[in-house]
Amino acid sequence: MADSETLSKRFNKAGKSIHSLSDSLVNAKLIALLTDKQLYAKALSRFYYVFASLERALDEGLKSGDKDVEIFKSFFNKRSIYRTAAFRADLENLLGADWEVACGHKSTPLKEYEHHLALLAATKPRLLLAHSYTQHLAITAGGQALRRIVRKHLGLPEGMGTSAFEFKEDSSNTLKTRFKSLFDEWGRSLSEEDVQQLISEHLKAFQYNNAIIRAFPIPSTAVARGVLRITPQPLLLVALALVVLLIGLFIRWQGTRSV
Description:
Helix content: over 70%
Oligomer: single chain
Transmembrane segments: 235-253
CATH superfamily: Heme oxygenase-like
Protein name: Heme oxygenase
Shape: globular
Number of helices: 12
Distance between the termini: 82 Å
CATH architecture: Up-down Bundle
Order of helices and strands: HHHHHHHHHHHH
Organism: Volvox africanus
Pfam families: Heme_oxygenase
CATH topology: Heme Oxygenase, Chain A
Number of domains: 1
InterPro entries: Haem_Oase, Haem_Oase-like, Haem_Oase-like_multi-hlx
Structural class: mainly alpha
C-alpha cells in the first residue's frame, strides 16, 4: 500500500461523515425502539439478516479457498466475531419461535444488501472483508454500551435479549484489537487500487445500513413515548404550561370574535 497510513485509519477517515450520519439515524430511532420490546426486536431482526448474509458470504469465501479471506479464518466462527446465532437467540427470546413471522417482510434495501453480499461471495470474496470490518467491529466497539442501554430501558433479565452484543470466548475489546491489527497487517500488502476498492465497499456498508434503518417504520406513538422519556420533567412542565396558556388565549380570542 503506497499510503503510509494504516488501512483502518484510511477506512476511518473515508467513512467519517457517513459514520456520523449512521450514528445519528440509529440514535434517533433507538429513542422510540426502546419504548417497546417487540418493536425493538423487529428492528433487531433487520440486522440479524445483515449478519446472517454477511457470514454466509464469508463462509462461501472460505469454501472457495480465497487466500485473503483465509487470512482471517480464525475470526470467522460462532465462538469469535460471528453473530448470526446470537441474534437468532435474542429474537427467539423476545418474540418466540415464530419470530420470523412476527418480523414481517424484508425491506427493499435489506434485500439489495443481501444480494450485494452474495454477489461479492461469488465474484470478489476479498471485498467482503471491508463489510466484516464495518459490521463486526461496530458490534465489538459499541455493543457493550448498547447492551447496557437495552437492558436498562427494556427491563431485560440477565442472559435474555442481548446475546448479539456479548462475547464469551474473548472480550469484545480483545477481538476488536486483534482483528484490527491483522486487518492493518494485511493492508500493507495491498495495492492502492485494492485499497480504493475496499474503501468503496466500506462506504457501501454504511449506505446500506442507513437505508435499512430509514426503511424501518416507527409508529408515531412510539416516537412520542420516546421523546417524553428523554425530555427532563421541568421542561415538560414548562411546555405543558405554554400549551395551556395558548389554549386559554385562543378561547378568549374566539370569545371576543363572537361578541
